Amino acid sequence: LVWLLVLLLAWLGPALGGEEEDGEVVAEEEEEDDMLSDELKEEDGVLVLHEHNFARALSEHRLLLVEFYAPWCGHCQRLAPAFAQAAATLRNESSPAWLGKVDATAQVALASEFGITSYPTLKLFRDGNRTHPVAYTGRMDTEGIVRWMQRRSGPSATLLQDTDTAAAFVSSQDLVVVGFFKDLESEAAQAFYEVASEVVDMPFGVAEAAELFQAYRLSVDTICLFKKFDEGRTDFPVDPVRGLDAAELTQLLRVHSLELVMEFTNETSNQIFSAKIPHHMLLFLNKSSSAQLTLRDGFRAAAGAFRGKVLFVVVDVTGYGADVLPFFGLTPADAPTLCLVKMENNRKYRMDQDTFSDTAIRTFIQAVLDGKVKPHLLSAEPPEDWDKRPVKVLVGKTFEQVAFDETKNVFVKFYAPWCSHCQAMAAAWEELGERYKDHEDIVIAELDATANELENITISGFPTLHYFPAGPGRKMVEYKSARDVETFSKFLENGGTLPEEPPAVSEVPPPQGPPPTP
Question: In the CATH scheme, what architecture does the domain 392-494 have?
Answer without folding.
Answer: 3-Layer(aba) Sandwich (3.40)
